[in-house]
Amino acid sequence: MLPLAEIQQQILLRLAREAVEASARNLRLPEMAAPPDFSAECFGAFVSLHKGELLRGCIGHIEALKPLAQTVRECAFSAAMFDPRFHPVTPEELDELRIEISVLSPFFDIVAEQVEVGLHGLLISRGAQRGLLLPQVAVHWNWDRERFLIETCRKAGLNEAAWRHGARIQAFTAQVFAEAAHPAQTSPHAA
Q: In terms of DSSP H, where are the helices of the chain?
């Protein structure tokens, strides 16, 4: 099903917006019928909320366990309500938020020298510890390959050199799309 067509992207953004608004208003997500033009294919996905240039919430599922539309709705709701780094989104913030969705490809093992900043996202793991960074994170912070590997190790709670010493490195690609920014929200870091 990937890459998603423009109409599919717009449907997912609408579903994510509805979920964020429900979360901010303390409403339950209603049952959802599968949207037209979507298969029941399962993909991992992340939903990021941005307030101006700042991250306001980000939750995702790396495992492809549910149909994509359902995964996006659940991640959007959780990003607004349950990201432990932020307090829940309030109704007053809704007009200031811009939603970005990253639909993940399957993961594959990769050696450090093959990692391409801007193309690959990373999942680094050792035992039960694992950390994931989306492809756009390295671009946003202007990291080179080594810094991207180091920061993904840190995200996993591993020593920053774990990628050199036996930690498993997996990569993925992502189709990333976002709501258009409101004129007051336009920034050089828009998705």
A: 6-24, 68-81, 135-140, 145-156
